[in-house]
Design goal:
3 strands, 64% helix, mainly alpha, 181 residues, globular, three-stranded antiparallel sheet
Length: 181
């Protein structure tokens, strides 16, 4: 009887261990799958982000000429984006986003700083929507200024607020409202 109890206890212990190992494997698989989903980001989407940040920085420093140059580069990066690694639904969304973002980038190229900032607001929404699909390799901060045009957001690689909508007039107006990883 004692041997039977020992055998049952050993079987239970093995069953629990095996079940725990299966759960751990499942969790690792899901974690790796999530990581892969977030790593769809590629060199072309990172180039778009880099050009976007150069544009944002030009607006922060009130430099309309640099903003126009950054707009030109951004329009080219957007046009070069390859959507083939994405699902059909994502490709459709990305096509709409990229068309709209390209139009705003092109308007920024030929506008004065006030108009550049207006287009930057909509461009930011497009880039944020793109990042939601493509992911990014870097930690981003979605920042928000309640004062510009009834509230306006922008993306930044730094937590410190540098407002592209007001530049030197209200450089630190805003707050981080979300972290994107």
């Amino acid at each position: 009887m004692k041997n039977l109890k020992m055998s049952i206890a050993a079987m239970l212990l093995l069953t629990v261990s095996f079940t725990n190992a299966q759960e751990k494997e499942k969790m690792n698989h899901n974690h790796n799958h999530d990581k892969m989903m977030n790593m769809k980001s590629d060199a072309k989407s990172e180039a778009i982000l880099s050009d976007y940040f150069n544009l944002k920085d030009a607006l922060v420093t009130d430099d309309s000429k640099k903003a126009a140059e950054a707009g030109t580069k951004l329009a080219a990066s957007l046009k070069a984006f390859d959507k083939s690694n994405y699902t059909a639904e994502e490709q459709k969304e990305l096509t709409d986003i990229i068309e709209d973002a390209t139009e705003h980038a092109e308007h920024i190229v030929k506008s004065g700083i006030g108009h550049q900032r207006e287009h930057f607001k909509t461009l930011t929404k497009d880039i944020t929507d793109m990042v939601a699909i493509t992911g990014t390799k870097n930690k981003l901060y979605e920042q928000f200024c309640p004062m510009y045009d009834k509230g306006s957001a922008w993306l930044s690689t730094k937590e410190e607020v540098r407002n592209p909508y007001y530049g030197s007039r209200m450089l630190k107006c805003g707050k981080v409202q979300k972290t994107i990883q």
